[in-house]
Amino acid sequence: MRPHRSRHRLLACAAVAAGLGVSSAGAQAAPPPPTVTPSPGPSASATRTFTWPAMAPSVAGPVTYEVAVTTTAAQPIMGQSVSGTSAQLSLPEGDAWFHVRSVEPAAVPSHSDWSTFGPYRTDLTDPVIAVQQTPAANPRGWVNAAATVTFLCTDANLATCSDPVTFGEGAGQVATGTATDAVGRSATATATVNVDLTAPAPAQPAAPGAGAVVTSTRPEFRWAPASDPLSGLQYYEVWVEGRGKVGSTWATRTSLVSSQTLPAGPVRWYVRAVDNANNAVASEVVAFTLNPDRPQQPADPPPGQPARTITDSGTPAPPLVRRPAGTRAPRPALLRARALRPAAGRTVRTLRPTLRWLRRHRMARLYNVQVYELRRGRVRKVLTAFPRRNAYRVPKGKLRAGRRYVWRVWPYLGTKGYAKAPVGVSYFDVRAPRRRQAEITLSARQLRINQRISQAAVRRVNELAAHLDGRPAPASAGASATPGRVRLAARQLLINQRISQAAVRRVNTVRARLEGRPMPKRAAAAATRGPVRLSVRQLRINQRIAQAPVRRIRAIRRELGLD
Fold it and tell me: What integer pLDDT is reported at residue 439 of this predicted model?
């Protein structure tokens, strides 16, 4: 029964349509607008007003319109209705297409096809411009070759980009580049280029001079300064032929002590000056003779007394050294050693021993104490002093652990000069003193102590690196900053350890730079991957790691003459 009723309903609808004079193949809607303004193209604004001509109705009117914006050229399904012949729309950044069609409700169908226009490109972003210098400047901002500045421009609608600029020798040369896109947006970038193509004027070796005879196996080298008017001097290096570089120092200093022990015989040396652009020049080569066994005046003149005229004949030589049969360690020829303390051959565990002599000369006004370092069968004077009493304590910095020292005492008799023979000659060995380990407690206070040691090391190595680069020293904020709370936890212990390890890596980098070696490879930040236990033993390990860079920085500063 249902299919029968549906058939009658369809017939009724057809009859009504026939009575109204409307057929299924009626007149179509008005055609879509054939043109639109503005024309497709780029714009720096996201909002655009589209205008099109009015279309005449094909049936009875009125004619309205539908508009749409898409990011592809594909026609949309539906649009936004407008009654006039213009529409203000917001377009997305990038490419977009505008679609418009006519709508006439009396027509069948009531919508025309879409007219599509585009692409309309919207650019709301300024171009990006970067600067690349070839060759790149060193940490002091200089290069020693002609430099080319290239501008790297990026934009979706890039129109122009500045050409590369090449610079010759000069300081403070400025290159400016501009990037412009198709919609008129632009960006600029500048670079300052410092080029020094000329090596410095060489230094002039002063001492040891040509033909000089030197007795110290680690001589001090002196020279007249070099000059570089453009980039300025960076540092000096002293080289000895056959031995390589024996030291380096800042441009503000014109002397250094050899870092190597040089062998006896002829020595040829020169100074190498390096400017801030890494241009280098070597001075003339100067030859001298190194003779550690040359006779020397055994007793130095006391303060305030003129030096006597000494000839080689009758002048006692430095202490004689011999190597007894069956032994490997050389030792001096002793003279009345029983009158001297420490006893001959005694090992002392202090770097400041007190030297005593039991025999006093009844006419002595002063005593001249001489201490020599004995290494590889040769002697080198390290100390001379003039005490009034028969005891003398060696000052700091004169003795080194693991060395053998020969010492003797000469009485000074006033107007009669020195006695003909010393009070005695003896020797002693020095070992590293036993260090008393400070008591370490498992506490937040000890963690903070270790942390401050590590932070001090980081600050000092940063100051040293800034000095090397010719930069002002960074502000030392660590010492004055309000300390945060330190918790007694394994995590805090690991944080302290990583700060210490960072300081060690930076010191090693500075050392490699000064010695001209390749920079050490950077180890992973989390060098300690195993578990860190919160214990007194681990606290002591962390403290030693923190103290290591502090000692190394002090050693470097002493070598460079900064302390």
Answer: 64
